[in-house]
Amino acid sequence: MIEILNASEVARARVTGGIVGTILQTLKGRCGVGTNLLEIDAWAKELILAAGAQSCYVDYAPSFGSGPFGHYVCTAVNDAVLHGMPRDYALADGDLLTLDLAVMKDGIAADAAISFIVGTPRSAADEEMIAVTERALAAAIALAKPGVKLGDLSHCIGEILRGAGYLVNLEFGGHGIGSTMHQDPHVANDGRPGRGYKLRPGLLLAIEPWVMEDTDRLITDADDGWTLRSATGCRTAHSEHTIAITETGAEILTLPSGVTPAG
């Protein structure tokens, strides 16, 4: 089922999205060399509860995971790209960290992710990989408006990722969001234009381009049963926003509170 939100529900989604964006930027600002992933998770819990929101992750137990996730934020380091389970690990200089956060407030969820370098960048390739996912995300959002097909968004993302030399994995991608965190429609990171569901005002989408440096194959961490890593051990990057389709385009909901889109 594809959920279309009314104006009141979209207004609540703006509040939830602002919470997600603000928490992610707060966490990024606190992260440095020596920060433990479990510290980040504890900070996320504290910030979520202080905002009067609920975690979408702590009790999350889908078929592809190993029991309830049990944590408040995904912390994916270096070769980890999705569902990074926080663990007892202190961040090292040059680590590439992705924080992925979804919360619920007043019955509406929002979801976003950011990737960044901790301390001194190891290489220009890491920074470019992050930038490519951000460009693909921005381009898809700019394209989104009523009447556009989902395949148009997927094709736009895929063209940018593949054009930069990356392979594209289609197992995991973006998704509808609203009264639940994950719902239809699926938003693949590559596809054929002119195909799929026609976007409508009131539709919320979490769009999330992600890549791995030299592969498109994932493996699941054997120790935690959750963290998805690149099959070759290469570095990874992931960018995500929740957007609402409006009458004329798309509104980014997961910017930090007080921040408006450029342009």
Helix content estimate: 25-40%
Number of helices: 4
CATH fold-level assignment? Creatine Amidinohydrolase
* Largest beta sheet: strand ordering: 7-6-8-13-14
Gross CATH architecture:
Alpha-Beta Complex
Number of strands: 14
- SSE order in H/E notation? HHEEEEEHHEEEEEEEEE
Instruction: Just give the CATH class.
Output: Alpha Beta
What does the main sheet amount to? 5 strands, antiparallel
Unreliably modeled segments: none
Radius of gyration: 17 Å
Q: What amount of the residues lies in strands?
A: 15-25%
**CATH fourth-tier homologous superfamily:** Creatinase/methionine aminopeptidase superfamily
Task: Look at the helices and sheets and give the structural class.
Answer: alpha+beta
InterPro entries: Creatinase/aminopeptidase-like, Pept_M24, Pept_M24_MAP, Pept_M24A_MAP1
Binding site for a divalent metal cation 2: 111, 175, 208, 240
GO biological process, one term: proteolysis
Protein name: Methionine aminopeptidase
Name the descriptors:
263 residues; alpha+beta; 5-stranded antiparallel beta sheet; 23% strand; Pept_M24A_MAP1; protease; initiator methionyl aminopeptidase activity; metal-binding; aminopeptidase
